[in-house]
């Protein structure tokens, strides 16, 4: 095959705790995916995954890599560094008298009502936190000049202690960053190899604790992320990769290696964000603009909301006990996965999770020494999972061990049968997961009945049908690439850079010229951060204003509706009207006569990529009989029923499957419950229509 005939490939690579997922899309619409075991050095797993994809495509690895124009990487390097407290040795330079801000927080713990909650692990111990003489006022005027001699002495002291990364956070530096900028220059003179994280770069906005916490987290994770990305890029280039390497960010966009290394805190949700981005992509192609995404893996259940194809964003994340106030996907997680353990509490009540059996020893049916009953065990007992075809037959499960675990730990103590115990466990975990969906919908002003439920992860499609019934949701979508969904999102995501700026003012005193000038400067900054690259089709700037009623503590982020680059008085009036509506939806209250304050401006610059078009497949006959591989006894209640079992790989677009039925797919199982029917769409997604006879409305 000549070079002219070689397709161009775009690779999405997502590294998880167990597997590294790889999805490749060609410019001719071809899409291929695979999994390979994750490795301690994540770059090994990435390289192995790319080699495996080349084998599947029956092409030479060097030739394939040379024709890859883009690799988008979802990575847990920064996440693991923070979760395991295995980041760089960090020092903090702050305004004299304020070095304990990181511990004082806002005078309360993130879990206000937990009296037993201990203080978090110190990622910057007090002896490495140094206050230096300097002070700005709230308007950015210098009250106390920067003591450069004190800065030099402090830097030398920290370096002597082995500090490899320094965070700098001065009072009101978000208004005037001059002192922080000068400190960075001094550090580069005294210790050019030390990583520097300035709060005026990381989070230039009001609220001191949020700013210092986010800056310290960035300093803690930055060197690790920077080292890893440089290592991966070097390995890829040595093997002939001449394209561009980008990294999935927590805000749902992708960014180049250089900027990701500087702002590692922006990639703390790199993996889950890929899945949410993929959901937007699937929703657009399938005609569903409002989605609730649920990802059920081995230990956790992640839920997020997409409205009008836009994922919800939050700036109030706590990760490993530290506040990270950067805009991130709003992903709610509970301890409910395939490995979640069922147990009986001291009051005799049946509980499920949050403790998990993990991968080792894992569920009892894994036959790795685990003896506690888990959600995976009950799914085997109820007939939802085929123990002989788990992971496409790569792993054999032991039904008898699952039965023994449930009988000893649940059925006998409660005086019920094994099947009754399994059904009870299933009902409890389904209820827990439905409550998690309610948390991100009803409690935030969304009606779940107005959304489709998109289920991914190894166990998501087993339970999604029941949750849809409980929540009154009419449609469940199981993507064709549900087991590697985050990697698919990496492939589809646009570039995105977020810039923040504080303008604290009463709305009635707002200067439109000041706001427009600020947004103009922010757009220039974001364009510089995107840097020179060849994958952007065009740019799109989305503007937001954080607003609140006077006297409130929390603000509401409101999109600015404007067809031009300049915001007019009419645009601002419309934004205020939208604020009242959003406030009422979120808090069931609005007061159009109440004075309004603005706090921050936010601009998202999106580098829109040329989309790789997938080829829709023509519909086949409705009859799915050619894909039927037999029947299996399944328990939806205490009365067993025999249901048809289908292989997903044998199903074709247009096939219609009436429930109850089971669809076995590598990496996941889809349960079509009674009174439901599944259609395989033109992209081989499984779309299940749900008849509301349980929790919803008929």
Automatic annotation (TrEMBL):
Gene3D superfamilies: 3.30.420.40. SUPFAM superfamilies: Actin-like ATPase domain. This is Hydantoin utilization protein A. It comes from the Bacteria. One of its GO terms (biological process) is glutathione metabolic process. Residues 11-190 form the Hydantoinase/oxoprolinase N-terminal domain. It comes from Staphylococcus cohnii. Transmembrane segments: none annotated.
């Amino acid at each position: 095959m000549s070079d002219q005939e070689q397709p161009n490939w775009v690779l999405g690579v997502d590294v998880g705790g167990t597997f590294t997922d790889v999805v490749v899309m060609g410019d001719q619409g071809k899409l291929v995916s695979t999994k390979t075991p994750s490795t301690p050095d994540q770059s090994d797993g990435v390289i192995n995954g790319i080699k495996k994809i080349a084998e599947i495509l029956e092409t030479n690895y060097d030739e394939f890599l040379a024709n890859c124009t883009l690799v988008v990487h979802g990575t847990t390097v920064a996440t693991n560094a923070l979760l395991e407290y295995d980041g760089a040795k960090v020092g903090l330079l702050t305004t004299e008298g304020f070095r304990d801000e990181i511990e004082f927080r806002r005078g309360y713990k993130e879990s206000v009502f937990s009296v037993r909650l201990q203080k978090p692990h110190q990622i910057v111990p007090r002896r490495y936190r140094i206050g230096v003489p300097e002070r700005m006022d709230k308007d950015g005027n210098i009250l106390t000049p920067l003591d450069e001699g004190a800065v030099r002495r402090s830097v030398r002291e920290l370096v002597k202690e082995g500090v490899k990364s320094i965070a700098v956070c001065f009072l009101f530096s978000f208004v005037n960053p001059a002192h922080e900028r000068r400190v960075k220059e001094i550090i580069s003179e005294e210790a050019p190899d030390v990583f520097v994280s300035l709060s005026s770069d990381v989070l230039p906005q009001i609220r001191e604790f949020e700013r210092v916490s986010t800056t310290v987290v960035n300093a803690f994770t930055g060197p690790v992320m920077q080292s890893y990305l440089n290592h991966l890029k070097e390995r890829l280039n040595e093997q002939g990769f001449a394209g561009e390497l980008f990294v999935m960010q927590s805000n749902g966009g992708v960014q180049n290696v250089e900027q990701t290394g500087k702002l590692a805190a922006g990639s703390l949700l790199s993996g889950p964000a890929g899945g949410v981005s993929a959901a937007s992509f699937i929703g657009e192609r399938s005609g569903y603009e409002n989605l609730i995404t649920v990802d059920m893996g081995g230990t956790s259940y992640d839920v997020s909301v997409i409205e009008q194809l836009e994922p919800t964003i939050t700036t109030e994340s706590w990760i490993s006990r530290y506040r990270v106030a950067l805009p991130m996907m709003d992903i709610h997680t509970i301890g409910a996965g395939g490995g979640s353990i069922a147990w009986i509490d001291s009051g005799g009540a049946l509980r499920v999770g949050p403790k998990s059996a993990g991968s080792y020893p894992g569920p009892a049916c894994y036959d790795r020494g685990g003896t506690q009953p888990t959600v995976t065990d009950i799914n085997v007992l109820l007939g939802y999972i085929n123990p002989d075809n788990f992971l496409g037959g790569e792993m054999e499960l032991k039904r008898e061990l699952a039965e023994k675990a449930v009988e000893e730990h649940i059925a006998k103590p409660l005086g019920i049968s094994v099947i009754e115990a399994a059904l009870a466990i299933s009902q409890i975990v389904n209820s827990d997961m439905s409550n998690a969906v309610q948390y991100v919908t009803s409690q935030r002003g969304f009606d779940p009945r107005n959304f489709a439920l998109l289920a991914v992860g190894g166990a998501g499609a087993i339970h999604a049908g029941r949750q849809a019934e409980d929540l009154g949701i009419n449609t469940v979508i199981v993507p064709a690439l549900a087991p590697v969904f985050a990697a698919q999102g990496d492939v589809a995501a646009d570039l995105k850079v977020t810039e923040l700026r504080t303008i604290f003012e009463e709305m009635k005193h707002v200067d439109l010229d000041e706001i427009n000038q600020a947004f103009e400067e922010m757009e220039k900054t974001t364009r510089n951060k995107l840097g020179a690259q060849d994958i952007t089709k065009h740019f799109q700037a989305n503007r937001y204003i954080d607003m609140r009623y006077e006297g409130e503590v929390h603000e509401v982020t409101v999109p600015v509706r404007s067809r031009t680059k300049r915001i007019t008085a009419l645009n601002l009036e419309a934004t205020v009207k939208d604020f009242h509506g959003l406030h009422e939806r979120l808090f069931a209250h609005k007061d159009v006569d109440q004075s309004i304050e603005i706090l921050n401006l936010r601009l998202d610059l999106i580098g829109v990529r040329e989309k790789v078009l997938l080829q829709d497949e023509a519909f086949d006959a409705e009859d799915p009989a050619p894909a039927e591989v037999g029947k299996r006894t399944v328990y939806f209640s205490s009365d067993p029923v025999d249901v048809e079992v289908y292989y997903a790989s044998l199903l074709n677009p247009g096939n219609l499957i009436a429930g109850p039925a089971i669809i076995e797919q590598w990496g996941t199982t889809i349960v079509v419950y009674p009174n439901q029917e599944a259609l395989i769409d033109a992209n081989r997604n499984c779309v299940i229509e749900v008849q509301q006879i349980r929790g919803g409305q008929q």
